[in-house]
UniProtKB/TrEMBL annotation:
It holds the Pfam family APH. Residues 146-254 form the Aminoglycoside phosphotransferase domain. InterPro entries: Aminoglycoside_PTrfase (IPR002575), Kinase-like_dom_sf (IPR011009). This is Phosphotransferase. It comes from Actinoplanes sichuanensis. SUPFAM superfamilies: Protein kinase-like (PK-like).
Length: 317
């Protein structure tokens, strides 16, 4: 049986047996059929009925299986800030959680959107600060180490990967010198490494501001989170509101870090972090697609090259 091959009936039987055993141990036995809910090349999610409500089982592809151990660690590092797992199997990358209700995106209102996003960003900054003292432990759990000093080497590896370069804008390799300088500046800015979600938006946060879905996460410059977050917010805002609102959101995120540097320096780091984190996004996609057990859609297959191509463009903020 191929490792974490969720198309194999033997794998499903083993996964469901594990789910049934773990829920039995905590007094919430399975009450019906466990159903496949969502399948991606990088993960699968199953819906599990119990007498205490729905439970969710998630398994990741080998390159992303660290999510289970990371979710468990974060629940201890920052209690109440994340969705704490009911059970994990870190060797197999299996994760079992309770249903935590609606996400922030499904409860947000147009009038309260900016205020809600500010609360989300500041809560996330506080969570990141809590992880600073634990980054070596997180890396030991398998969380990718993508600190600024390492990113030039990681970019070089991507540029040596034929599966990436086949779709790559030919102008990207010429940026390696500039990229190394950006990373060196970030590495020297005094902002410590922390957990970096790498796919943070308001659909990966529950309405009670608990964060989840850590399958893309790394240890890196914390401000790199703003790349996806502000891109998502940019697309949701009316064009006339974007510049002022995005600046306000960025500064709200940075406020919990102002003990480390003045705001103008933090803004410069945020812009640089958003630019270099495009390599982190390419790495996330490369991990998530490697040895995929289901067919990979074309829009996913060229994602690493597309993210590297973004290095040629200015950042949202």
């Amino acid at each position: 049986m191929r490792d974490n091959d969720w198309t194999d009936p033997r794998w499903r039987a083993a996964a469901h047996a594990w789910v049934t055993a773990r829920l039995g141990e905590v007094g919430t036995p399975v009450t019906g059929e466990i159903e496949e809910f969502r399948v991606r090349p990088w993960s699968v999610t199953h819906r599990v009925p119990t007498g205490a409500g729905v439970r969710w089982f998630k398994a990741n592809i080998t390159g992303c299986r660290y999510e289970a151990g990371l979710a468990e660690a974060l629940a201890g590092i920052a209690p109440g800030a994340t969705l704490a797992p009911l059970a994990v199997d870190t060797d197999r990358g299996w994760l079992l959680t309770a249903d935590a209700g609606p996400t922030l995106r499904s409860t947000i209102t147009a009038d309260g959107r900016t205020t809600t996003w500010i609360a989300m960003l500041q809560a996330y900054s506080v969570l990141q600060r809590a992880t600073v003292a634990h980054v070596d432990r997180l890396c030991a759990l398998g969380v990718p180490d993508q600190r600024p000093s390492l990113l030039p080497g990681l970019l070089a590896g991507l540029l040596d990967d034929p599966s990436v370069t086949a779709d790559l804008d030919p102008r990207v390799p010429a940026l390696t010198g500039d990229f190394a300088r950006w990373c060196a500046e970030l590495a020297a800015d005094g902002v410590p490494a922390a957990v970096q979600h790498d796919d943070l938006h308001d659909d990966n946060v529950f309405a009670d501001l608990r964060f989840f879905d850590w399958g893309d996460a790394s240890v890196g410059h914390p401000f790199g989170t703003l790349l996806v977050t502000l891109n998502t917010m940019h697309d949701a805002l009316d064009a006339a509101d974007r510049p002022a609102t995005l600046a306000r959101l960025r500064d709200a995120y940075l406020e919990p870090w102002t003990d480390l540097a003045d705001l103008s320096a933090l803004r410069r780091s945020a812009t640089l972090a958003c630019r270099v984190t495009r390599v982190s996004r390419a790495m996330s996609w490369q991990r998530g697609l490697a040895d995929a057990v289901v067919p990979v859609d074309e829009r996913f297959r060229n994602a690493p090259a597309a993210w590297l191509g973004e290095l040629l463009e200015p950042t949202t903020i």
